[in-house]
Write a structure and sequence with these properties.
The chain is mostly helical. It has a domain of 50 residues. The protein is built from five helices and no strands. The protein is elongated. The relative contact order is 0.04.
Amino acid sequence: MAADLLKKEQNENTAIKEPEENTAIQEPDGSPAVHETAEEEASPEKSTEKEEKETRKSRRKRKRKYKIRRFPILLRVIVVLILAAACVALGLMVGYGVIGDGNPTDALEKQTWQHILDIIQKE
C-alpha cells in the first residue's frame, strides 16, 4: 500500500512540471524570447470569470434533460401524410366537380379512374 502511494506521488510530481523562467530560448531573429507565465497572462479577475463560465456550462450539461414531446415526431409524420391525402382528395373533387362539371364524389370512384386510364392508353 505504501508503494502505491509512493508511485502516485511520483506520478503527480512528474506530471506537473513548471517551465523554468531563466531558459535561453531565442526568437528566429536572434533576440531573446520573452514568455509570460500563465499567471501573468490572465489576471485574477479573468481567471475567476473563466472558472464561473466553466461551472455554468457543466451545470447546464448536468441539468439538461430531454423534454417529453406532447406531439411525438412519428405522430407528426402520420398527421402530415393524412392531411396531404385529404388535400389531394379535396383537390380531385374540386377539379372534377367544379371545373369539370361532374359530380364531386365521382372523382373518388374506381370506375372514373379506370375510364381515364383507358382514354390515356388508347392514344
